[in-house]
């Protein structure tokens, strides 16, 4: 929880577990592993992975989930951007130039072929 990381949250898998908000995601992973039969009966909210609800209640939860508003707001704001703005807001990373040319190396053939353990083998037989 961004507002109070020390707030206690009830575990959706084991009701008597109370976990600090800052540790809650870690607890969910461990608790799912420790309680696979209970975890099978729960579904994860598509808007917030911390929301585990009974599978039968998932569609109702999706309709009412508070985190849905954040996703919808992001989608709407992205839709209002021009394609050029969307490109500008994306990553600008480019791969550095590479001087290696594996095809040429293969065509020329390598004089020194590396064979794993050949040095170790020759030392034992010396």
TrEMBL record:
InterPro entries: TRM13/UPF0224_CHHC_Znf_dom (IPR022776), UPF0224_FAM112_RNA_Proc (IPR051591), Znf_C2H2_sf (IPR036236). SUPFAM superfamilies: beta-beta-alpha zinc fingers. GO terms for molecular function: zinc ion binding. This is GTSF1 factor. Residues 8-35, 42-69 form the CHHC U11-48K-type domain. Coiled coil: none annotated. Keywords: Metal-binding, Zinc, Zinc-finger. It comes from Irena cyanogastra (Philippine fairy-bluebird). The lineage of its organism: Eukaryota, Metazoa, Chordata, Craniata, Vertebrata. PANTHER family: GAMETOCYTE SPECIFIC FACTOR 1 (PTHR21402:SF5), GAMETOCYTE SPECIFIC FACTOR 1-RELATED (PTHR21402).
């Amino acid at each position: 929880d961004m507002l109070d990381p020390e707030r206690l949250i009830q575990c959706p898998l084991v009701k008597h577990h109370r976990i600090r908000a800052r540790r809650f995601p870690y607890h969910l992973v461990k608790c799912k592993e420790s309680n696979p039969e209970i975890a099978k009966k729960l579904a994860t909210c598509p808007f917030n992975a911390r929301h585990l609800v009974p599978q039968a209640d998932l569609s109702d939860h999706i309709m009412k989930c508070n985190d849905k508003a954040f996703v919808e707001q992001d989608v709407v704001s992205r839709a209002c951007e021009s394609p050029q703005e969307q490109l500008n807001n994306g990553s600008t990373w480019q791969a550095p130039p590479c001087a290696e040319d594996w095809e040429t190396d293969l065509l020329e053939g390598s004089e020194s072929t590396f064979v794993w353990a050949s040095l170790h083998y020759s030392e034992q037989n010396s």
